[in-house]
Amino acid sequence: MESVKDLLIILIGSSLVSNVVLSQFLGLCPFLGVSRKIKTAAGMGTAVIFVITLASAVAGVIYKFVLQPFHIEYLQTIVFILVIAALVQFVEMFLRKAMPALYEALGVYLPLITTNCAVLGVALTNVQKEYGILTGIVNGFATALGFTIAIVILAGLREKMEYNDVPEVFRGMPMVLLTAGLMAIAFCGFSGLL
Amino acid sequence: MNKKSSFSTAWERLSNGLIKENPTFVLMLGMCPTLAVTTSAMNGLGMGLTTTVVLMLSNLIISLLRGIIPNRVRIPAFIVIIASFVTAVQLLLEAYIPSLNEALGMYIPLIVVNCIILGRAESYAYSNPPIPSLFDGIGMGLGFAFALTCIGAVRELLGAGTVFDYPIMPDSYTPINIFILAPGAFFVLAALTAFQNYLKITRERVGKEARHIGSGCSEDCMNCADSGCTKRFYDTTGGKQSDIEVIDMEKEEK
Amino acid sequence: MSITGIVTAAAVVSAVGIFVGLFLGAAGIRFKVEVDEKEEAVLAALPGNNCGGCGFAGCSGLAAAIAKGEAPVNACPVGGEAVGKKIAEIMGVNAESSERQVAYVHCQGDCEKAGTDYEYHGAEDCRMLSFVPNGGPKSCNSGCLGYGTCVKVCPFDAIHVVKGVAVVDKEKCKACGKCIAVCPKHLISLIPYSTKQIVACSSTDKGPVTMKACQVGCIGCGICAKVCPKEAVTVENFHATIDSAKCVGCGACEQKCPKKAIVRA
Questions:
Q1: What is the mean pLDDT of residues C130-153?
Q2: C142 by DSSP, 3-state: which?
């Protein structure tokens, strides 16, 4: 069992120092695609936090109680991805029926999260770093938090940049990538935190 | 099916994946591994070839099973098949090429969620016979590998002065470390996309058909990141008309 | 090669797969939402490129609104008449053949006719100009700034800046409303396609002020209101407005306007 201090270190480490998008390059597609407006970015971020925290919990449980006892840890990729896909499907169904308001806000992003590298990446990282279930959940939450921070910042920058006169060749994706690169440099500064 | 036509289809699939519809340069799919593993040309090549193997096998099997897989569960079925091959390849790499496994790390299992593999399965392998699917997989995979190697070579050259660990830059060259790190990947990809835009714009200016370059159009204008898109101005049928018809319409207008 | 390993692996994965399948099936039944068939049919009839021109959140948003009766059946600007008719059939109503509307920019103060107070060099976006003195370099506070923010948002290439003012191409305009929403001076409004005469000015400044700022600005003299045989013109706040319901297109106001502020639409 990790102490609270260790959990706090993981929280800061996974969200800022090795930010999932700007350091580990996971979850790029939604990061570049859904970051045009702050509102949609915040919606996407919230959906991601929700899904990844749940997914790391479920993946942790399955690893501990199904894969390890049978010594088939090597099947983690297959089992995790199956479970994650099912989980997202279930969350979508549940939200649609039980919380329609939340579904209106987040529902559109949920299918995008299924093939998001970040979800599978977090589950695999938890296994690789040999985290327990609770630590895994904290790590998952922190990772998703980092994703939300990054995507909201990028959306803010893009909204501001909408007024700017960008050279024709750089309009669109190149500009966004350059901005992301500069953000990545900025986030490198966090490495001194821990 | 006479031998000549199947050979030419195979060749056509190969060249399509390598040049015409190169997954990285033209379709802009699979960005996550592109940015993550191209820290050196060797890593890029290794990842590209690994993906090629998985793509090849999964395309083949999915094409063989296309009669059996029901439409409603096709995506989960694809994912399970692809995940199985990825696990197999991962274990093989762990055993026989541990250095590559170390270098690529977590990104090997992440081949499962690589848009290229799922995309090819969905758009080609599910509706075409096995041999063309196999060559489509090989073509796309080799195109991807080529792209990754190029990007990796550029990053390694600028960031460490070497290519494939062979020193190229003169001793007076101070390596620009940032290209090996995360931000460098974004910058190189930005330059690449800008170059593509440049090609698209010059082609359109001359009047040639340029829509296929770097579109990755999801026909979802509301969530699209491309503000330089010309399609939404003229294609008012919401993309339901095929590209060919739209081109003819433009020719008639002229 | 131990067979037990292979069998265990296959068994566990199959078990997980079967469990997931059953779980989702059960959840699908337990959480079943009554889907409106009409909504699905309407969604299928819409073009599907989620351009947002209807003002709803994508095609699914519009389909939901139409199914609930909150949106007219011909609300899709991209699909136009054809799609409107199809949806009307699905919903079982008569397609209200509402009059086609187009956007119109109520300003004709271009480079030659309107004056400028100062030279401006900066961000070329009409919205940004709300931060500069007097809301922009143009002498008239209610005039079109001509930096083309409306041009950038139009998905149908229907509006362009000609000699410093924005002009709408009536044939291409689909009345999606994006230019109207984005114009910071609120100069653009929807008018019926068949409008004959329109006041091409939005200035509510007093006469002498308007005359100094622009050669073709409305000074609120009221001559148009006096000569109109149908009493379709009202003058308020030194600004004339034509009621298109009453206007028959006789052109008297256009002829008599001393500043030539009323034009053919």
A1: 83
A2: coil
CB-based contact B32 A168, cutoff 8 Å: no
Beta carbons of A122 and A139 less than 8 angstroms apart: yes
Assign B1 a pLDDT band (cuts: 50, 70, 90): very low
Tell me the C-alpha distance between C89 and C83, whole Å: 10
Tell me which residue in B76, B112, B225 faces A33 most closely, judged by beta carbons: B225
Residue A24 burial class via C-beta count within 10 angstroms: exposed 0-12, middle 13-18, buried 19 and up: buried
Question: A7 exposed, middle or buried (CB, 10 Å; 0-12, 13-18, 19+)?
Answer: middle
Q: Is C212 helix (H, G, I), strand (E, B) or coil?
A: helix
3-state secondary structure (DSSP) of residue A188: helix
Q: Computed over its alpha carbons, how large is the radius of gyration of chain C?
A: 28
Give Cα separations from C131 to A164, C122, C134, C180 (angstroms).
Answer: 15, 11, 9, 20
Q: What DSSP character marks residue C114?
A: B
**Angle, in degrees to the nearest 10, between helices B115-123 and B41-64:** 30
Q: Is C51 on the interface with B (CB under 8 A)?
A: yes
Residue at A84: amino acid letter: I
**Beta carbons of A165 and C123 less than 8 Å apart:** yes
Question: How many whole angstroms separate alpha carbon B111 and alpha carbon B86?
Answer: 7
3-state DSSP of A78-123: HHHHHHHHHHHHHHHHHHHHHCHHHHHHHHHHHHHHHCCHHHHHHH
Half-sphere exposure (Cβ direction) of A180: Cα atoms closer than 13 Å = 34
The residue of chain B nearest to residue A171, with distances taken between CA atoms, is B228
Q: How many residues appear in chain A? A: 194
Residue C233's nearest CA partner among C188, C197, C186, C185 is: C197
Over residues C237-249, the pLDDT tens digits come to: 888 888 888 888 8
On whether the CB atoms of residues C168 and C158 are closer than 8 A, the answer is yes
- For residues B18 and B142, what is the distance between their CA atoms, to the nearest angstrom? 6
The first and second tokens of residue B48, run together, are 């590209």
Structure token pair of residue B50? 């690994």
Q: How far apart are CA C252 and CA C73, in angstroms?
A: 38
SS3 (DSSP) at C197: strand
pLDDT at residue B253 above 50?
Answer: no
ipTM: 0.85
pTM of the model: 0.75
For tokens 């009554």, what's the residue?
C34
Question: Is B236 part of the contact surface with chain C (CB cutoff 8 Å)?
Answer: yes
Identity of the highest mean pLDDT range in A154-158, B195-199, B250-254, C63-67: A154-158
- pLDDT band at residue C50 using 50, 70 and 90 as cut-offs: low
State the amino acid at position C31 in one-letter form.
Answer: F
DSSP string, A17-61: IT-TTTTT--SHHHHHHS-SSHHHHHHHHHHHHHHHHHHHHHHHH
CB contact under 8 A, C123 and A83: no
Phi then psi for residue A174, to 5 deg, are -55, -40
Q: What is the CA radius of gyration of chain B?
A: 20
The verdict on a CB contact (< 8 Å) between C12 and A72 is: yes
Q: How confident is the model at residue C49 (pLDDT cuts 50, 70, 90)?
A: low
Number of Cβ within 10 Å of residue C82's Cβ equals 12
Q: Where are the beta strands (DSSP E) in C120-214?
A: 159-162, 165-168, 188-192, 197-199
The answer to whether C46 faces chain B, any CB pair under 8 Å, is yes
Q: Reduce the DSSP state of residue C22 to 3 states and report it.
A: helix
Q: Which of C14, C20, C43, C50 to mutate to test the interface with B (most CBs of B within 10 A)?
A: C50
Closest C-alpha to A129, from A50, A63, A52, A187: A63
